[in-house]
Amino acid sequence: MSDRIHAHVYVSGKVQGVFYRANTRDTARSEAVAGWVKNLDDGRVEAVFEGDKDAVETLVEWCHTGSSQADVAAVEVTYKEPIGLSGFEIRR
């Protein structure tokens, strides 16, 4: 079984107002990945994913496309030590 990892992600482009957060939450839950997602004032979306390495990498790859209405310009990822997150939520 793969190790647990933690990814901190920033997504830019047309990613607000296109169900990006809701689709991220649903995808994370289906992959059993913990964390959160939120809109930033500068138009980007910020997310944290934590869980099985393969599942987290699936979410990071998913971020490059996102919801069907999104137009992703860039995805920045930083990996950190896991902090023991559980569940997945949309933060306001």
UniProtKB/TrEMBL annotation:
Enzyme superclass (EC): hydrolase
Enzyme Commission number, as recorded: 3.6.1.7
Record-annotated Acylphosphatase-like domain positions: 6-92
Catalytic residues identified in the record: R21, N39
InterPro entries, alphabetized: Acylphosphatase, Acylphosphatase-like_dom, Acylphosphatase-like_dom_sf, Acylphosphatase_CS
MF terms (GO), sorted A to Z: acylphosphatase activity
PROSITE patterns: ACYLPHOSPHATASE_2, ACYLPHOSPHATASE_3
UniProt keyword annotation of Hydrolase present: yes
Record keywords, A-Z: Hydrolase
Pfam families according to UniProt: Acylphosphatase
Keyword Hydrolase: yes
Catalytic activity: an acyl phosphate + H2O = a carboxylate + phosphate + H(+)
Highest taxon, organism lineage: Archaea
Family from the record: Belongs to the acylphosphatase family.
Protein known as: acylphosphatase
